[in-house]
Write a structure and sequence with these properties.
The protein contains nine helices and three strands; from the N terminus they run αααααβααβααβ. With about 230 residues, the protein is mostly helical. Strands 1-2-3 form a three-stranded parallel β-sheet. The longest helix has 17 residues. The protein is globular and about 60 Å long.
Length: about 230
């Protein structure tokens, strides 16, 4: 990924909302949303485009939702449920009631020699560095705790319920990683969901039974010929 493209991606997805700087712009957008008789995704997009930032960029739905919550907290009132729902990013992502959380394992050799499988430096085999999930993993140095915690927080920030979580462990042929790494990786993912560090995988599993973010599904990436 080019530096310019990466900078643009980070500006849109990782820049926190500045209520003091853009509060008036946010209020104008919210007022138009409330006045609209029917608010479809296309209608919301038109409203937002009518209120660009000084540099010409427009606020993302994630920034709008974050800003709206900040505004409500400042004014001491609860967010309007319907308004918050309209600002939710990708609502179908949790339509089943479960929030998918994707994390990547660190780069590790794969026994496969598939000619179509990319192998970029610093990435698990078959993953490209400009993919959003790969970018997030690299930013956290493939640390399972940091990846899980940040992704859960990000999902909550864009309006999703994260009480139930499905962990998707991608990044390579899981079956070929050392068993100690596998156990450590899963334990640290659960530690992030539990909000407390466990001494063993078994303890992490027990703690997760009453955790604020319960893991209801676990998917790992491997090869059919490596399944045992």
């Amino acid at each position: 990924m080019s530096r310019q493209r990466e900078a643009t991606w980070r500006a849109v997805h990782q820049t926190p909302f500045d209520l003091e700087r853009h509060g008036n712009l946010l209020v104008a957008i919210l007022d138009e949303m409330r006045a609209a008789p029917e608010l479809s995704g296309e209608h919301l997009a038109r409203i937002v485009r009518r209120h660009p930032l000084p540099d010409g960029r427009i606020l993302s739905k994630a920034q709008l939702l974050t800003g709206y919550r900040q505004l409500c907290a400042r004014d001491g009132r609860a967010p309007d449920t319907e308004l918050a729902r309209c600002l939710q990013v990708k609502p179908t992502r949790t339509i089943s009631g479960v929030a998918p959380v994707t994390v990547l394992t660190e780069p590790f050799p794969c026994p496969g020699e598939c000619i179509f499988c990319p192998a970029p430096d610093g990435m698990p085999k078959s993953y490209l560095p400009d993919e959003p999930g790969a970018m997030r993993a690299a930013a956290h140095e493939f640390d399972p705790y940091a990846q899980t915690a940040s992704r859960v927080a990000a999902m909550a920030e864009i309006g999703h319920n994260v009480d139930k979580v499905e962990l998707l462990i991608l990044g390579g042929t899981w079956s070929c990683y050392p068993e100690a790494y596998q156990e450590w990786f899963v334990r640290r993912c659960l530690d992030a969901l539990n909000g407390v560090e466990a001494r063993s995988l078994e303890e992490a599993q027990r703690l997760n039974e009453v955790a604020p973010h319960r893991n209801v599904g676990l998917v790992v990436e491997t090869r059919p010929d490596c399944i045992t």
